[in-house]
Amino acid sequence: MVRVCVRRNSDSQHSRAIYEAIKGICYQKQCPNEERILRFVLREFDWKPADILKQLHFAVEDGLFRESIAISHKGSKKGNEQMSYRIINTDNAVELDANGNSQAEELRPDEDSGHDWYCFDCQESGEVILCEFCPRVFHRKCAKAHYISQEEHWKCPSCKVGEENNSMSSLPKEKVAKMLEFTIKRLREKFSELTKHVSIEHCPDYDLYINHSTDLSCIETDVVEEKFASPGQFLEELKYILHNAIIYFGDDDEFTVMAEELIEDAKQEIEEMLLCPDCYYLSNSKPKDWFCQPCNPPHELVWAQMKSQPPWPAKVSSYFPFTGGGLVNSGARGNS
User: Fold this and answer.
1) Which domains does the chain have, with CATH numbers?
2) 6-20: per-residue pLDDT in tens?
3) How far from 212 is each of 157, 181, 237, 289, CA to CA, in Å?
4) Between the chain's N and C termini, which has fewer beta carbons within 10 Å?
5) pLDDT of 245-265, one tens digit each?
6) 137 near 31, Cβ under 8 Å?
7) 11 and 124 in contact (C-beta within 8 Å)?
8) Are the CB atoms for 80 and 72 separated by under 8 Å?
């Protein structure tokens, strides 16, 4: 049966800004009431006060923060009760009450969290459809699922990618894994900062927003263990790195920009792989006389030449229509 629900009401960027506000106010030994939270957040962000308060109340509903009654110990309101908020951290951090004191109790929202809290396509909260085959969730419009039978076991767009037929569909799983090893190695070398988990010590609230934490090292392990049946499945797992970065760090953070570049590079690698799996495999494994070995199906052989360069033998990998003749995309001199 199709499951549709609201996993999160609050926007991740608003609730993270409120989190930092409550933490900062608590460390100043002040009561984090709405007035102080607003002042703190508005110092950093040009948001409407009404939107901040709305997101604060949404975050309380989501279990990210807790309302409590605090008694002011100084100032003109000394001795008065006032509504305040306290943050709920993960296992590796303490919980702070409204007066900045640590609490021994460990609290985590959504203990049943088998699925993500945010749409895998747009990284926003709201009503989502839960995939029956993976932890991803999607808005109806993002999944283009305008009509869903209530009796079906809903499979998300990311899971369906693995079912697509392409030039690698008939290849044995071990050969697919070997080619993905070449890909992940190249990505690791270029994006070394994405090979480690985000530090919970530096980001203690990370697990409150990120349901499926991963990095290039984890994905490399999955590649070696042959967990991906296709390049499409591999790419969808890589997208988790970008998905998590947008949710936690925001659109324009340098970590997110790096994750976007990672996905673009991975798409280019996979495009080459699908164009001719044999060429991709041979050009990376480089057995003896690898460029002379025929692919299946074999390529047409031509002489290729660039301006001011001598001609060299090349394999035709594809044709592009061009006025006055065909434009050849060829692989030569070790490039396929």
Assistant:
1) 4-93 (1.10.10.10), 166-313 (1.20.920.10)
2) 999 999 999 999 999
3) 17, 22, 10, 43
4) N
5) 999 999 999 999 999 999 999
6) no
7) yes
8) yes
